[in-house]
Amino acid sequence: MSKNWIRIISISGAYMALLIGGAFATGQEAMQFFVAFGFKGLIGLIICGLIMVYTCYSLLNAGRNNNLKTNEDVFRHFCGNWLGTFMTWYTMIMIVAVYGVMLGGVGATLEQAYNIPIFIGSSFMAICTTITLLLGLNKIIKILGIIGPVIILFTISSAIITLFDESSALKVGINLATSLDILKASDSWLFSAILYSVFSLPGLYGFLPLVGSTAKSSFEVRAISLFGPLLFTVVMGIVVLALLGSIKSLYNVEVPILVLATNVFPIYGSIFAFIIFLGIFSTVTPLIWTVCRRFFEEYTMKFNLLAIFLTLICLFGGNLLPFGKLINIIYPSIGYIGIVLFISLIFKDLRLQRN
Q: pLDDT averaged over the chain?
């Protein structure tokens, strides 16, 4: 395999790892954005995947063609000076909030799987994340490029086996989902799909352009933009179908994916809790890196102290509410900001095309 394809697969894996996070790996994203709407949620997922391909390409391409060194450079490039500055600060605050949600997700997962106290599980994740932050961006990309495909493999295998076992119940689940009391990201299936496709943009704005600036060719940018988002969408689709097939037994649990894995093989369910741990780790690390990098250079004492300080704040804040409730409060609000960033991205690309 050529070095170009190795790099394409690695960066695509890092992209998927960043999107996976605690809400995907636990199944909460699939439940609230797609499963709750039954068949219409599946249509929304297709729309979501197409939007993600476009945003990934645009951000990578902007990083490759412009001298964008920080997340603030990226926001100003797409949104202008005033709105770009506001978005920079808002996004950093939201990233810190998501960090707290992810740490809470770890605690919920480890408690459900191993009866480990929530705060202990969250603290372990906080330590792992902080250590990785101190290694720098290049090491983070390499680590995520490995973790992403591993999580995808374990998640999709659990979902596929469940689909075979519950194929007869899938149609019933699709019809039943809309009548159950499931937390929804929005009352509209279409708006939920749009929210999901753009709610990761605040984090991707600070990450993908910096990765794109290291791209070797336009082919590399196009390949990553197709491979990463489309594979992620396919995996999410399989997870959504699996959850719909077992909707009666897991619509009201905090970590529905863990229920699926445990139903397949009891021992495998215990292993899958660790996979969820990796999924949460793979998202919080690059996100919080973008915040710390905004203020200080890597490998400096100030960078390290800020990383530790933010981790401590999020560790305590992330355990104030149940995991599912935190996601329902914070994630949709980030999606609204993501819509603004998405519109800004489209207008910037249209202006460039016109020029």
A: 80
Coil, helix or strand at residue 67: coil
Which residue, among 88, 94, 12, 84, has the nearest Cα to 53 in the 3D structure? 12
Question: Running DSSP on this structure, what letter comes out for residue 74?
Answer: H
Neighbours of 36 (CB within 10 A): 24
User: 259 is written with which tokens?
Assistant: 């229920």
Picking from 316, 349, 68, the residue whose alpha carbon sits closest to that of residue 213 is: 68
Contact 34, 42 (CB under 8 A): yes
Q: How far apart are CA 161 and CA 167, in angstroms?
A: 10
Q: What are the residues whose beta carbons fall under 8 Å from the beta carbon of 194, sequence distance 6 or more?
A: 47, 48, 51, 335, 339
Please name the helix (run of DSSP H) or strand (run of DSSP E) that holds residue 234, with its range, or none.
helix 218-245
CA distance 62 to 77: 9
Token pair of 180 as six digits: 């159950």
Q: Cα torsion for 327, 125, 312, 68, to the nearest 10°? A: -80
Q: How far apart are CA 149 and CA 10, in angstroms?
A: 9
* Structural contact between residues 19 and 200, judged by C-beta atoms closer than 8 angstroms: yes
pLDDT at 45: 93
Q: Is the four-CA dihedral 313, 303, 130, 9 of positive or negative sign?
A: positive
Q: How many residues does the chain have?
A: 355
Contacts of 325 (CB under 8 A, 6+ apart): 183
CB atoms within 10 A of CB 322: 13
Distance CA 196, CA 190 (A): 10
Nearest residue to 174 (alpha-carbon basis) of 279, 301, 38, 26: 38
- What is the distance between the alpha carbons of residues 234 and 87, in angstroms, rounded to a whole number? 31
Give this prediction's pTM.
0.76
Q: In this structure, are residues 182 and 27 in contact, taking their beta carbons and an 8 Å threshold?
A: no
Query: Residue 235 carries which side chain, given as an amino acid letter?
Result: V
Q: pLDDT of 124-177, one tens digit each?
A: 888 988 888 888 767 777 777 677 677 777 777 777 777 676 555 777 777 777
* DSSP tally for the chain: helices H, then strands E: 17, 0
